[in-house]
Structure prediction request, 579 residues.
Amino acid sequence: MLERTVPDLLIRSIPTGSRGDGRDLRRFLYRGAAGKNGRQDVDDRIGRGELGPPLTERLELLELIHARLEDAPVSVHSKLAWYGQVSCFIQWVDCRSDAPRLTQATAKALFVDYADHLQQRVKIIKDLKQRSAYAMVSLLAHVLGPVLDPEAPLAHRALRDLTSISIPKSSKRSRGIQADKQRLDDTFKFGHFLSDVCAQLTIEAVRGPMPLQIAVADGNKTLDLSSRRFNFDLVPDKIMDKGRRDRAIRARAPLPPDIDAKYARSWLINLRIHAEMLIFIAQSGMNLAQVKDLPRAEYRWQTHDQDYVVRAVYKARRQGVAKFIVFRAYRDHFNRYLAWLDALGLNEEDGRLFPCLYLVQVPPAYALPQFDTLRAYCKTLSIPFVGPRLLRKTRINWLLRRSRDPDMSAQMAAHTKETLLRVYEEGDLQSASQEIGAYHAKTDPALPGQRTFPACVRGDGAPGPLPETPKEAPQPDCVTPEGCLWCEHLRDVLAPDYCWRLASHRYLKSLEVALFNPPASQPLHPGYLVIDRVSMKLKAIAAQSSACADWVKDAEERVREGDYHPRWAELIEIIEDLI
Prediction:
């Protein structure tokens, strides 16, 4: 064990499970202990003296770090991240033979050297991403900044700014319509799978014979549910050892009435609880950390509007009221789950709404479910697994697109409107194209009335098609610019800007034609006629003079280089993302 002369540096604000004694900074007093795996093994090696004497010069700094980690008003997960970066920093110090001793006086200089080391890994070794290096430095600065300069109001930021690592620029790429559809398709497939699991893992199925098979709606597949403790592929009659054969027979048989399913079939119960948890997150929009500890209590349904229902959870010990919003159709499903919990007696010892069972090693209270079994079954069935974070983001963006109401969506997601739009909203190409078109229809001076092109001599008369207008060509209507090309009131302009506008318009129509999948009833896309008409106009302008020919040539060169006329640039960029 660790020496009694060393003060207690155990971080008690980080709960522990049944696997060990948590995070103890006393281990960092011994060179090399930070890089060893297995906390109990490290303590044993320290007790045997294998890691040498304690480096007492580190004690003052570690005591300050301990106080920082214990008293910081942050979540357990943030403290775990801070502790992990302190461990990485001390590992790096221990591996350097030329580094000065780690003390409170040298910690700042060593922090800057450590940041340079991370930058070298990013730029030269290239085994670390810039964003990861920035995150590591920022987390460590949150610990060391207030320790080394307690009077500074933003000490962590001042310490971080001493390094050469900067946050990388985010390069968000626009997603096409197909990507949006694919995400929704994947989410729906995953949701159907979760629903199948919950519907078929009834009390009778949980207590029934093994192995259990459930039907999956996607692709008419069948999934075999089996425990890791038993190999149900082996036929009991072929097992030679009598003890093993008897255990195999008992594992396959239905549970007798006197056997509690909570212990005999805990893996099946956990499977449904995890599936119910993910469905609840998709319905309510709550995050996983909140849902994991949500108590089972008295529920009161309160109808709100015609599409969804407000549920209020009255917590025990007068802790207040937690409200969340779900869709109306979820109520019957949720009530079936509550009845299933009561029938199995799962809330007798655990008062949570999702009481996962642990028979051997109990994880720490802060640990979040990883859904490993569901992930494995999804991989077996080739169904995409959609995690809690992506479920919440997909739900919020789906609400935004369906309702076009950020205020209502923010209320349903339990966020402020600013947070929802800044963090959760994702670009939707289809909605963006509609909004851009509506914007131009209202604000572009070329669009109101007939002024789609700059030279129209219509006056107050109606648009009139030219005699030679093809039947398939767009008809003049003073709304679409394509119709203007066959209007008798249009007059071409001998100007470089007009040539650039026509060349950009022709390129836009070529992109539109490239996306066209013609049906048998319409073999000819009208865009071909527009392309020919614009080409004819450009050819006629170029024939006027050498200067006009230069204007046309320059306009075509600009379009080839990707420099489009402002009238068409945004629409061209949107359509290019679709190809």
Remarks:
- The mean pLDDT is 78.
- The CA atoms of residues 506 and 532 lie 9 Å apart.
- DSSP finds 23 helices and five strands in the chain.
